[in-house]
Every structure is written in structure tokens, then in C-alpha cells.
Design a protein that fits this description.
By secondary structure, this protein is of the alpha+beta class. The protein has eleven helices and 15 strands. The strands form two sheets. The protein has an eleven-stranded mixed beta sheet with strand order 2-5-6-8-15-9-14-13-12-11-10, with helices on both faces. Strands 1-3-4-7 form a four-stranded antiparallel beta sheet, with helices on one face.
Length: about 375
């Protein structure tokens, strides 16, 4: 068995995707290579690729982990800035660190990707590779992994941290009206009101959007970054062009028009029976337009295409009021400094209790009728 730590995703063989064919589109090789080739996730932006691979005795790739050396915590969405500040206050170095995950993509999925045909000892070999990749850093962080993977990593010494997102689940709905029929009367009335409020606009859902439509989506994405994220535009136009080529009809463009003028849009990604909401923006602030483009249209698409789940992205309690339910997300962490590791482990245990309380409270206050939750 051979373990390799590379310095570029260009060194990763095409068989990478076959290891985890049902995994997130954001850990597929084409996406990771596109981020690097378009200089979105490269050393100059604080993302130094360190993919870790395990090959069996026949030199077949049997495991891989998308890893990066980081000099900051931006673009990760497992918010550890308070950890970094606490370390700095105590005179403990926090950066650089090694993270295992997909840049700018807070989407749950396998991070230690192992083939079903991998020989015994592959998981341990992959962990050794990550330890080698993390040599000389101040921490190893596995972000947005699955519950099962998190439990296994916890047994290996990486304490678990919990957060939560809002996901939509398809309970076999025949139509959007069928879906909101599962709501209590008051929230159902509010949703109908906000959808009626944008009836003067025209909406399109387009698979394999044109170059002109992708230009609109990039403009909207950039505008959102400038308005709400201090101009922190992680992605560039070259990446949008690359994704149009790489993903093709897996890209769902949701576009809003005022007459012939495109005024808002969202870029979503389809894989298997899941829809992933990614980037949104608008030229005009229209009341309820964000909810229509980012949530209602996506749910309609998912119902029409019999998708099982819609993950619209990180944060946003306004999703909850529109039928998205709280789902716990996981990450695992090793800190090089023993005292910092122990202190953050204790803190994460307390935080986990709070997360479970919040999720239970949200489920209790759900907009769905009680019988729908049983």
C-alpha cells in the first residue's frame, strides 16, 4: 500500500471520482481542479492543495482526501475564528492548519473517501497520510463530514464539533400546493402571500444555462459578495466558465425577469436525487424575491423531478419558516497544542448540547402540522 501527499489536484488520477461515485459534486475532481486552475483555491488566496491518496499493491487508487494547507479560516463555514482569537490571546499559534474539505462549499459528504473494494488498513493509511500532510502545522480539521465518519474520527482522537443547517426533504409531494398543504394555516398563508407578491415577474428554471445566463449569475454572485461580505469574492468569472463546461446540465439556473431584463438569479447544482443551492444575487431589491428564487423555485423543481432533498446552503433561519428543517452537521479537529486541544474539546461538548437544544426547539416550533412530523 502506497500513501501519496501531492501538491496539486492536477496530480490526482481520474479514478478519484470512482472512489465515491455518490459523493458531493463539490469533492469531485473536476470541481477541485477547476478551483485550482482558475486560481480561486491556490497558495496566493491562502489555499495550498495537499490532496492525500492511498494506492493498493496493484497501484490502484483506493482512497483520497481533499486537503489544503490554510493560513486563514475564510471560505470554510465551520466558524473557528473565535478559536483562532483565543489561541492568539494565549500566545499559541493557530495557523497554518490543514483542512480536509471542499473550498467555499459547506456541503456535507464523505471527506475520507474510501473505495468499497479497498483492502483492510486503508482507513489507517489515509489517516497516516493526513498526519504527514499536516506535519509542521498547528491543527488538522475535517469539515462537513458525515455522522458515521465523524464518529470514527472521534475514536481516533479528533473531537467532534456540531453545527446545524436547514435542509428540505421531499415527503413524496405531488406538487408545491401539496407540500405547503402540510403547513399549519398561518405559515401556509404567509407563503402564498409572498409568492403572490412577485407574480408580476417572470421566472425561468434552466438546466445547462447559456454563457449569457452564466454571465448574469456571476454578476449577481459578485454583487451579493460586495453588498454582504465586504467584497470578499472567493470565485471568479473563469470558474463560472469552467463550471459551465464541467457540469453542463447539472447546473440549474433560476432566473427572474422584469420584462426582458434579468434582475435576479441563483446557481444551483443537481446530482443524483439532491439539489444544492449555491450562489444568488439581484440587480433590484424586490420584496420576497430572494425567497422565490432561492427556495420556492428550488422546491418546485425538486418536487417536479422527484428529488429527495434540497440543501440551500449554510445559515439563514428564514429557510426554516419556508419548510426547511434543521439538520446537524459535523466536523472533527486535532490541535497541535495539547492545552488548546483539550480546552476546545470541552468547549465543543458544551456547544453540542446547545445545538441539540436548538434543533429540538426548532422542531417543536415547526411550521408543519404536528401530524406531518410524526
Amino acid at each position: 500500500m502506497r500513501v501519496v501527499v501531492a501538491d496539486s489536484f492536477s496530480a490526482v488520477p481520474d479514478s478519484w471520482d470512482a472512489i465515491d461515485p455518490d459523493g458531493s459534486p463539490f469533492t469531485e475532481l473536476a470541481f477541485l481542479q477547476a478551483l485550482e486552475q482558475t486560481e480561486c483555491a491556490v497558495p496566493d488566496t491562502g489555499w495550498t492543495p495537499r490532496p492525500v491518496m492511498v494506492f493498493d499493491d496493484n497501484d490502484v487508487l483506493v482512497a483520497g482526501a481533499p486537503a489544503y494547507l490554510k493560513t486563514h479560516s475564510m471560505g470554510e463555514f465551520v466558524y473557528d475564528h473565535s478559536w483562532a482569537n483565543a489561541a492568539d490571546g494565549a500566545g499559541i499559534a493557530y495557523y497554518p492548519k490543514l483542512i480536509v474539505g471542499s473550498p467555499f462549499s459547506p456541503v456535507t459528504g464523505s471527506r475520507l473517501r474510501i473505495s468499497k473494494n479497498a483492502p483492510a488498513g486503508t482507513h489507517a493509511a489515509l489517516l497516516r497520510g493526513l498526519q504527514e500532510a499536516a506535519r509542521g502545522t498547528n491543527g488538522l480539521h475535517v469539515l462537513f463530514n458525515t455522522k458515521e465518519e465523524s464518529e470514527r474520527l472521534a475514536k481516533a482522537g479528533g473531537f467532534t464539533r456540531l453545527q446545524y443547517q436547514y435542509w428540505w426533504h421531499n415527503d413524496g409531494y405531488a406538487s408545491y400546493d401539496d407540500f405547503i398543504g402540510a403547513f399549519r394555516a398561518k405559515p401556509r398563508k404567509k407563503i402564498r402571500h409572498e409568492r403572490k407578491a412577485v407574480h408580476g415577474l417572470r421566472f425561468e428554471r434552466v438546466l445547462r444555462p447559456s454563457s449569457e445566463q452564466m454571465d448574469h449569475l456571476f454578476r449577481f454572485y459578485s454583487d451579493t459578495c460586495n453588498k454582504h461580505y465586504y467584497g470578499r469574492t472567493y470565485l471568479n468569472h473563469d470558474l463560472f466558465d469552467a463550471l459551465q463546461s464541467v457540469w453542463g446540465d447539472r447546473i440549474l439556473a433560476v432566473l427572474a425577469y422584469d420584462g426582458d431584463r434579468c434582475i435576479a438569479g441563483a446557481l444551483d447544482v443537481v446530482k443524483g436525487d439532491r439539489l444544492y443551492g449555491r450562489y444568488w444575487g439581484c440587480d433590484e431589491e424586490v420584496k420576497f424575491l430572494h425567497f422565490e428564487v432561492c427556495y420556492h423555485q428550488g422546491i418546485e423543481f425538486a418536487i417536479e423531478n422527484k428529488l429527495s432533498m434540497f440543501e440551500p446552503g449554510h445559515g439563514g433561519e428564514h429557510k426554516y419558516k419556508r419548510g426547511f428543517t434543521p439538520e446537524i452537521t459535523y466536523s472533527n479537529h486535532w490541535l497541535a497544542h495539547p492545552g488548546l486541544h483539550q480546552a476546545l474539546h470541552r468547549h465543543s461538548k458544551k456547544e453540542a448540547a446547545w445545538v441539540h437544544e436548538q434543533v429540538a426547539q426548532l422542531n417543536e416550533q415547526s411550521p408543519y402540522r404536528k401530524e406531518e412530523l410524526q
